[in-house]
Amino acid sequence: MNTECDPKQPIRIRVDAEIAALVPGFLENRRKDVTLVLQAVDQGDFETARVLGHSMKGSGGGYGFDAITDIGHGIEDAAKQQDAPSIRACVTALSVYLARVEVESDDTQI
After folding, report:
1. Which of 27, 34, 60, 104 could form a disulfide linkage to 69, CB 3.0–4.6 angstroms apart?
2. How does the average pLDDT of the chain come out, rounded?
3. Where are the beta strands (DSSP E) in 1-110?
């Protein structure tokens, strides 16, 4: 079975050694974004949700996390439409992804 589809399997991402030291902080900030986006939606602050999604969309791929880019794009688009259920679905996808992702660089796990 494809590990991307099996929620019990980790998603392994290989990053360049040059940015490996930055990756734990990047992922921790995305974990914080889960809370921040949900708080924004709960308060009806779709602009903050849009900005956070836009930031994820712009930064995910640069770190090697294309899924974060895709999820950020989804959050941004849903926020523009003020579609709270879709934003929450994207945040759930982000949370699940972050729980499963394992990062490797030069034969080491970060």
Report:
1. 60
2. 91
3. 11-14, 101-105, 108-109
- 49 neighbors 79 (Cβ within 8 angstroms): yes
Question: pTM score, two decimals?
Answer: 0.89
Domain segments of the chain: what residues?
Answer: 34-102
Does an H or E element contain 99, and which?
A: helix 84-100
Phi, psi for residue 74 in degrees, rounded to 5: -65, -40
Length of the chain: 110
Express each pLDDT in 3-51 by its tens digit. Answer: 556 667 899 999 988 899 999 999 999 999 999 999 999 999 999 999 9
Q: Which structure tokens are listed for 39?
A: 């708080």
